[in-house]
Structure to design on (990 residues):
C-alpha cells in the first residue's frame, strides 16, 4: 500500500498528509507573473512545479480548480508601497498604453507555457478585472477598524491586527523586529507605522492606471488582488496556495492578514513555496549579470551559456531537483540533463511500441518483485511532497527493465501480462502526463526533405532508377514532388 | 501613382478615402467572441479579415492600436434583453464556475488564431475587467436623462434619445417601424418601450455572475462593454470599428446611441462589416446542420465534408472572396483553394531563393511595364477596400513572371535589378506579411525519418555500404541515430 500524499506546509513548517477540505475537490491558487517584462526562468520554474502538482493531483483522482492570476496593476517597483507601478512605468518608457504592455508580456508568458508543455490553469483572472471586489474588501477592512485612510490612500493597520492575530506567522518574523528594522517614518509619511501596507493607493495626476473609488481616484495595492481572487474563485478557505519563496514576505503574509481581517479565518490550508535559482553556485540576479531568460537558454545567446539548450532539456533539468531546493544552473548540468531527457524520451517511444507477447519464458518472481517495488516507488516519491527528483530516478530504474525486455534479456512471460501493462502505463503516465515531457522535433522537416532529395539526386546520377522511383514515391506520399528542372533537381509542395 | 486607401463605410454606405483622425495613428476596435462555446467559422472569417486590415494598415506605415475584446459576461441567449446570460447558462449546464467556461473557450479561440497565423491584437480587454467603467457610463446616461431604472435594472430610453439623434442610422432602420414590429409590452415589462435596451440588469438570486452597483446586485448589458472599452483605449472618437454583419443591429446601433448619449459625438469614423458564410448556397446555421467548426474542417470530420482541409487552405479560401461578400463553402471550392494555396506558397519558396544575376539579356521595356503594372495593381486592389480577392489574382500574375525568370524564359537583365527586387519584395510582403499565408508541414517529421530509415534498411540489405554510411550521417546531423538491433533496425534520438 502506497503511503498518502504529504505536502510540506510552509505555514506549519512540517510535512503533512494532504486532506482537502471537500474531497474530491481541490482548490489551488498560484501567484502568476507581473506582466511588465519577459517572465524570467525562476518564475517559470515555479509555474512548472505547480503544473506538475496540478497534473499529479488530477492523476490521483482529485477534481482540481487551479487559479493562477495575471498581475496587471498594483505591483510597485520596490515590491513595497513605494515607487511607481511596474506596468505604468514600462508603459511610460515604451510610450504605450499600459494594457498594451500587459497584452505583450501576457502573450509572451502564454507562449512559454506552451513551449514548456504546461496546462492552462482553469481560471486566469487579472487584477484589473477585479477592481470592484478589491474596493469592497478595502471597505470591509475599514469597517472592521483594521484599515485607515490617509490622503485618498487606504492602509492596513498591522499593529492593530496583530493584537488579536499573528502577523509574521508564515514568514517566521516578529512584528517588533520588523518595526525596528524598518525605515523610520517622517511627518510626510501617510502610514501610521512602517509595517503597514497599502490596500488602495491614491493616483497622482500623471498615473495612467486609475479608477474611481470611495476614497478618490486610485488603484489597488498589490497584495489585495490575490486575497480577492482566491476568495472569489476558491472560497474563504481553500486547499493550496503556491508561489515563489520571494513572495512569502510580504506578499503572502499580507494575504493572510487581509483574509483573516475580513473573514476571521485563515484563507489557506497548505502553503507551498518554490526555491530560487543559482548559476554556478551564485544567486541569479539581473545586477550580477548571471541571470538569463528562457529565450536566451533556448538560443544559447548569453555569455554564460556554451550552447543552446532545448525547452525539454531545461524542463527535465528543473524537474531533476525538488521544487523546494535551490537549483543550480551550469553548462555541465544542462548537458547531463539533455542526455537524461533523451534517454527518458527514447524509453517513451520504445515502451509505446511494445506489446505483450507470450514467449514461454519461466515466471521470475524475483524480477516481478523488483518491478513492483519500482512502480510503487514512482508513486511514493511523488507522494513525498511531489519529489520529481526521486521520481525521475525511479523511472530510470523502470526503464532498465523495459530495455531488458526489449533486448530479450528479460522474457515477457517471465513477468506476465498484468505486470507488463502496469509497468508500461506507469512509465507513460509519469513521463508524459505527470512530468509532461514530450518529444522534440530534432530538426526542421525541411532538412529531412533536403536530405532525401540529396539521396534522390545521387541515385539519379548513378542511374539507379528503381531507387529513384522509390524515393519519389516516398516523398509524394508526404505531399512533396521532385521536379527535374533544366537548372537541376528541385522539390515543391504538390499543388 | 497608386490611389489612396478607400474603405466602404457601413454608416455612410459609401466607399470613402481613409483619413485617420490623428495620422500616423489609427485606432481600430473589433468585437471579439462571446466565449461560451467553440468559436465558429464565420467568426474566424471576421477576425481573419481584420487581421489582414491590421497588417495592411501597418504595411502602409500607420501605427495601429488594435483592440479586440472578449465578451465574458452580459451576452444574453437571444442577443436581446431576455433569456439567460450565455456564459452563466453554459456554466450551469457544465457544472463549472463561469470563469472556467471563459478560460476554456478563450484558450480555444487563441489556439485558433495561432493556427490561422493571425497577429494578437494590441489590447484584448474583457467585459468583466471593466465593470467599474460600465457602471459609470450607465450612471452618466441616467444623469443625462437618457436612461431609467426599473426594479434594479437600467434601460436606455431609445425614444427620448431619438428626439435629438437618429437611432437606426447604421442599420438603416426606422424607429417607428421597429416600435410597431416589436413585441407588445405588458404590465409585467420593465421597459418603457420595446426598443429600449439594457445597460444594467438586476441579477436574480440564482444568477452566478453578479456585482454590486448603485442599483443593487446585477451585471452589465451586452452593448455597454464595447462602448466602454472602445472609449477607454481608443478615445471618444476613433477610426475603425469592425465586426460581423449580424452585429450591426442591435449591437453596433446601440453602441452608437450609448456613446452619442454620453459624450455627444459619434464614436466611430469608419464602420466595417464582414458578411456571412453559406454552404452550397444555403445560409450556414446550426439548426440546418450545415455549419461546421474550424476543427471539423481540419479533420474532415463532418457529413458535408469529403476530406480534411488544412488551416492555410481554409484561410486562402476565405481570402479569395472580399470580406463584404457572402462566402460559399463547397468541397469543390475548397479543393481548388488547396491548389491555389500550394501554388502561391511554392512561389514564395522559389522567390525567396532567387537572387539577381546579370545574364546579358537585352532590356525589355514591354515586360518591365507589365511587371510594374502588376505590382501597382497589387497595391491598388488592397487599397480598394482591402480587396484580397483581386490581390490574389494579381499575385498569381506576378508569379507567372517569377516562374518565367526561374525557367529562363525571361532574362534577369531584361528586367534589371531594381525591378527584380521590387517584384521579389512585393510578392514576399503580400503573401507572407499581409495575407499572412505560411508553409505548412506536409507531414510529421517522424514520417520523414521512417522513410529515410526504410531506404537505409534496403541499402543495408543490398550491402550498399557507401549509401548506408551517407544516410546514417544524414540522420545523425539531424540528431537521430540508427541502431542495428537483433530484432531489426530502429531509430532513436541521440542521447
Amino acid at each position: 500500500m502506497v503511503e498518502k500524499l504529504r505536502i510540506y506546509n510552509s505555514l506549519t513548517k512540517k510535512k503533512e498528509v494532504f486532506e482537502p477540505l471537500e474531497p474530491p475537490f481541490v482548490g489551488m491558487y498560484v501567484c502568476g507573473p507581473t506582466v511588465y517584462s519577459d517572465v524570467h526562468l525562476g518564475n517559470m520554474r515555479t509555474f512548472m512545479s505547480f503544473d506538475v502538482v496540478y497534473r499529479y493531483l488530477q492523476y490521483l483522482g482529485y477534481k482540481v480548480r487551479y487559479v493562477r492570476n495575471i498581475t496587471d496593476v498594483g505591483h510597485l517597483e520596490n515590491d513595497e508601497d513605494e515607487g511607481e507601478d511596474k506596468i505604468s512605468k514600462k508603459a511610460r518608457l515604451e510610450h504605450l498604453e499600459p494594457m498594451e504592455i500587459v497584452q505583450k508580456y501576457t502573450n509572451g508568458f502564454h507562449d512559454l507555457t506552451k513551449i514548456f508543455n504546461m496546462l492552462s490553469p482553469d481560471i486566469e483572472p487579472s487584477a484589473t478585472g477585479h477592481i470592484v471586489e478589491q474596493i469592497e474588501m478595502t471597505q470591509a477592512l475599514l469597517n472592521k477598524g483594521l484599515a485607515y485612510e490617509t490622503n485618498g490612500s487606504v492602509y492596513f493597520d498591522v499593529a492593530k491586527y496583530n493584537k488579536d492575530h499573528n502577523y509574521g506567522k508564515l514568514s517566521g518574523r516578529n512584528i517588533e523586529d520588523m518595526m525596528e528594522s524598518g525605515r523610520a517614518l517622517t511627518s510626510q509619511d501617510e502610514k501610521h507605522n512602517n509595517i503597514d501596507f497599502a490596500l488602495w493607493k491614491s493616483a497622482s495626476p500623471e498615473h495612467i492606471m486609475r479608477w474611481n473609488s470611495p476614497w478618490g481616484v486610485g488603484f489597488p495595492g498589490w497584495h489585495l488582488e490575490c486575497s480577492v481572487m482566491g476568495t472569489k474563485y476558491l472560497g474563504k478557505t481553500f486547499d493550496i496556495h503556491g508561489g515563489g519563496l520571494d513572495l512569502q514576505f510580504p506578499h503572502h503574509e499580507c494575504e493572510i492578514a487581509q483574509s483573516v481581517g475580513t473573514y476571521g479565518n485563515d484563507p489557506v490550508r497548505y502553503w507551498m513555496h518554490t526555491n530560487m535559482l543559482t548559476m554556478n553556485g551564485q544567486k541569479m540576479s539581473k545586477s550580477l549579470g548571471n541571470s538569463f531568460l528562457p529565450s536566451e537558454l533556448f538560443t544559447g545567446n548569453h555569455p554564460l551559456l556554451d550552447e543552446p539548450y532545448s525547452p525539454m532539456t531545461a524542463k527535465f533539468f528543473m524537474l531533476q531537483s525538488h521544487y523546494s531546493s535551490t537549483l543550480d544552473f551550469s553548462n555541465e548540468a544542462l548537458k547531463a540533463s539533455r542526455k537524461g531527457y533523451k534517454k527518458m524520451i527514447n524509453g517513451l517511444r520504445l515502451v509505446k511500441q511494445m506489446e505483450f507477447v507470450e514467449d514461454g519464458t519461466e515466471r521470475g518472481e524475483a524480477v516481478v518483485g523488483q518491478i513492483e517495488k519500482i512502480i510503487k516507488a514512482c508513486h511514493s516519491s511523488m507522494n513525498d511532497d511531489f519529489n520529481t527528483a526521486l521520481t525521475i530516478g525511479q523511472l530510470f530504474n523502470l526503464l532498465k527493465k523495459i530495455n531488458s525486455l526489449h533486448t530479450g534479456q528479460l522474457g515477457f512471460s517471465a513477468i506476465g501480462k498484468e505486470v507488463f501493462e502496469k509497468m508500461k502505463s506507469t512509465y507513460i503516465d509519469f513521463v508524459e502526463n505527470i512530468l509532461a515531457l514530450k518529444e522534440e522535433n530534432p530538426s526542421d522537416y525541411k532538412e529531412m526533405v533536403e536530405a532525401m532529395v540529396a539521396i534522390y539526386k545521387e541515385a539519379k546520377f548513378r542511374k539507379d532508377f528503381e531507387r529513384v522511383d522509390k524515393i519519389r514515391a516516398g516523398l509524394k506520399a508526404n505531399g512533396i514532388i521532385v521536379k527535374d528542372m533544366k537548372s537541376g533537381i528541385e522539390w515543391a509542395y504538390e499543388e
In short: Chain B has a mean pLDDT of 93.
